[in-house]
Amino acid sequence: MFDKILIANRGEIACRVARTCRRMGVRTVAVYSEADANAMHVTACDEAWLIGPAAARDSYLNIDRVLEVAKRSGAQAIHPGYGFLSENARFARACEEAGIVFIGPPVNAIEAMGSKSAAKAIMEQAGVPLVPGYHGSDQDPDRLAAVAEDIGYPVLIKASAGGGGKGMRRVDDPKQFREALEGARREAASAFGDEQVLIEKYLLQPRHVEVQVFADTSGNTVHLFERDCSIQRRHQKVIEEAPAPGLGQEQRTAMGEAAVAAARAIGYVGAGTVEFIMDSRGAFYFMEMNTRLQVEHPVTEYITGQDLVEWQLRVASGGTLPCSQGELGIHGHAFEARIYAEDPERDFLPATGTIRHLRTPAEGPHVRIDTGVRESDTISVHYDPMIAKLVVWDSDRRTALKRLHDALQRYVIVGTTTNAGFLARVAAHPAFIKGGVDTSFIETHREALFPAREPVSDRVLAAGALFELLSVDSEARSRAAASGDPWSPWNLTDGWRPNSDNFHTLHFMDGDKDVEVVAHYRDDCFLLELPGGDFRANGELAPDGHLRMALDGVHLDALVLRDGQKLTTVVGDELRELVVHDPLVAGMEDELSEGSLTAPMPGMIRAVHVKAGDEVKEGDALLVLEAMKMEYTIRAFADGIVDHVNYVAGDQVSEGAELLAISSGE
Fold first, then answer.
1. Checking phi first, is residue 584 left (phi over 0); if not, alpha (psi -120 to 50) or beta?
2. Is 169 tagged catalytic?
3. Which of 164, 224, 465, 493 has CB atoms 3.0–4.6 Å from 212's, for a disulfide?
4. CATH 2.40.50.100: does it fit domain 595-663?
């Protein structure tokens, strides 16, 4: 067994590997970028080395620098985690040449599966079923368009060299093919340095089912059963479960055997995942093989009782698999929900921000949280926006799913927008409870998963109002104490004003709705006029935003945090963002912003398709913004003429920056 390993990654996977190594008595070395100097994985390891600036290409993807740190620190092996260098054959070869063990498969296996096109050819020879499609070397756009016509729409364009939904486009209409092809190639080149694509038939209502495989250097290969990863947005998984619901034993055995055959066909060693797509009839087809540990490996660990990172370390150090196929079995059911900094209401756009408050469900035998983020950490534009993986287990699917839903409702994050509430709605949906999953689940059930915004509750409004009133009171007391005349009526905080009644009107924006709260000052409380009626309210506000309040005699604990004009208010399980609002100022801002197109999030301009003076139609692609490893096309909201374009390809932009402006042309 190794004495010391370097973890060439960050976030939750680096923390996860460090945990297992500590249990096994193996020392760990972290690497970090300038942006990650205070990151959780830095303190989780025994030592940590700076490897470069924030940009991944200058730090976590810098092969020479990672190897230099490994040599200088005395690490005998490198665990690549997932993402970054985990499936990079050049890195694996460089480790081998440097005499450092790469904790992953052999170089030839990575190369064989690194190209989706080559992988499909190998799988075809091994007798693994394939989806109808084209994975040849002729990448002429006319040739690819003709292939798509022959296969029949809808088709899927996929980056040949990558995964994770990057460089992937579904195309339903031949008229959309060229634009989709350009976007997929551009994204693939950016993410993987290779713009080659393949074309596949897009199966309607498919399921994404993958099988965990493991092999050692002694020729032993096993599978650890399957995971269903069908709940996806932007072709990326958000909820996974094991075992797959509704899968019969015959199908399970056939998929497991096919996955083992795929691993043996390329001389695989270590942890890998063979991904299949399953149609509505139960037929399954090979999609790709991920030559690394998967993000969703914890659900497999839960149902098998095995530690897959420990398996990786033992196999990489020359040991054999701890179990034979016959010794492995399925015990209970597990779910994993990926909690991301993203906004489901804005087509799951990634979000940024500093986590100002973090409340998580209690961990134990049934609940596990894998994370690389703590309270006060910042979610930046530089890396993947995943905050944590919430993993639950129980004896059967229905009970495990209830645990997942309950745990999601207890997960509270303040400081950035997250998908936790959305995931809770998925977990509670009747179709999901019944196991009716496919990759179009979110679109199929969009109306239920994205319900109309309910009016803000009286208790949240009361908390926001009390926060504002008590904050003003505290500030006024501080000013009075520091003034030369602390008894001046201008320093009073009881709502006194000349020639007027003692009340104050507060305006909050709840989404696009202006909600008014009138606060009347009383000797022992405030009388709040709320949408649900009049309530007597008082409270005590702590400097950290915790508010102990009483609303008509009912005592409640709340948390209110202010960022500029935005109030994030948490009362019980209800989290709401309100904006302290001045209707007159807001009206002027709306006039100023009319006709402009702003960046929905920070990122880099990848392409600009228009210039000043161009006529555009509603829906036309104007420019492409890249952020957090994904591309977002900014389109015209109406017919018009481009007034001006403020940026060129390669420019960095902040959220809210005006990208360009369009006038009606009248």
1. alpha
2. no
3. 224
4. yes
Alpha-carbon distance values, 200 to 153, 221, 662 (Å): 10, 29, 38
Residues 356-380 have pLDDT tens digits of 999 999 999 999 999 999 999 999 9
Compute the average pLDDT of residues 69-79: 98
- Largest Cα span, the chain: 91
What is the Cα–Cα distance from 211 to 233, expressed in whole angstroms?
21
Give the residue-averaged pLDDT of 314-337: 97
DSSP conformational letter for 83: S
Q: CB-based contacts of 475: which residues, under 8 Å, 6+ apart?
A: none
Q: What is the DSSP letter of 176?
A: G
- Fold designation for 4-103: Rossmann fold (3.40.50)
Query: Tokens 């390809």 belong to which residue?
Result: 649
Of the chain, the end-to-end C-alpha distance in Å amounts to 75
**Domain spans of the chain?**
4-103, 132-201, 203-331, 340-450, 458-583, 595-663
pLDDT in tens, 277-316: 998 888 899 989 999 999 999 999 999 999 999 999 999 9
| Three-state DSSP state, 252 | helix
Residue 178 has pLDDT above 50, yes or no: yes
- What CATH code would you report for 458-583? 3.30.700.40
* pLDDT band (50, 70, 90) for residue 585: very low
Mean pLDDT over each residue of the chain, to the nearest integer? 91
Report helix, strand or coil for 307.
Answer: coil
Length of the chain: 666
DSSP conformational letter for 80: -
- Distance between CA atoms of residues 278 and 238, nearest Å: 18
pTM above 0.90, yes or no: no
Catalytic entry in 252, 292, 356, 606: 292
